[in-house]
Amino acid sequence: MSIHIPNILLAIPRNPVMAVGLPLALGFFSGTHSSQVANSNWYAQLASPPGRPRREVFPFAWTLLYVSMGYASHIAVKALDNTLLDVNRNALSLGIALYYAQLGLNYLWSPIFFGQHQIGLALVDSVLMTATTWYMTKLLDRPTDAKATYFLLPYCAWLGYATYLNAGTWWLNREPKNYRK
Q: Which Pfam families has this protein been placed in (predicted)?
């Protein structure tokens, strides 16, 4: 039984420029407010776990990851268009549906963490996003002959790291503080 994906959600990644452009645009809109908050007293006063990179690393890393995940969606849709096997069609359909689910979770993370200062809720989002992305990568591996996996593994690794950072930040800042804005 194959999951039905609306045609518009298949049409976008068929074009590699649109496939890459969608996550880049969503990431840009989601993160526009983040740089202001990253320079705020609230963010500066947060305790961070060991291994957090300088904040300047994040836009560069996320840009590369958005390009990579977008191209993986292109590979997945092209494989779906060309597959004759029901088992591959089912895996690809579910994988593409999960791609959009993780993209939505990704879009929500910055407004939750930076906009609403809800570190715990952002952690829930991050765990769901990471699990969804890992499962999506597993589903897309065989039907794309691992091509999508090559583009998604750096994203999976980064999400594991980002979830560690989010969890550590939540843990170290569990007690409410009076932050100056």
A: TspO_MBR (PF03073)
Contacts 24+ apart (CB under 8 A), 56-61: 59/31, 59/35, 61/158
Q: Against a cut of 0.90, is the pTM above it?
A: yes
Q: Which residues of 128-141 are buried (b: 16+ CB within 10 A; e: fewer)?
A: bbbebbbebbebbb
Q: 122: how many CB neighbours lie within 10 A of its CB?
A: 23
- Mean pLDDT for all residues in the chain: 93
Length of the chain: 181
6 vs 102, more confident: 102
The Cα 26–Cα 126 span in angstroms is 16
Q: For residue 42, how many other CB atoms are within 10 A of its CB?
A: 15
Is 30 strand, coil or helix? helix
* Whether residue 89 has pLDDT greater than 80: yes
Distance from C-alpha of 92 to C-alpha of 74, rounded to nearest angstrom: 12
Instruction: Please tell me the number of Cα atoms within 13 Å of 2 on its side-chain side.
Output: 15
CATH fold of 22-173 reads Ferritin (1.20.1260)
Q: What mean pLDDT do residues 104-113 have?
A: 96
How far, in Å, CA of 60 to CA of 51, rounded?
A: 17
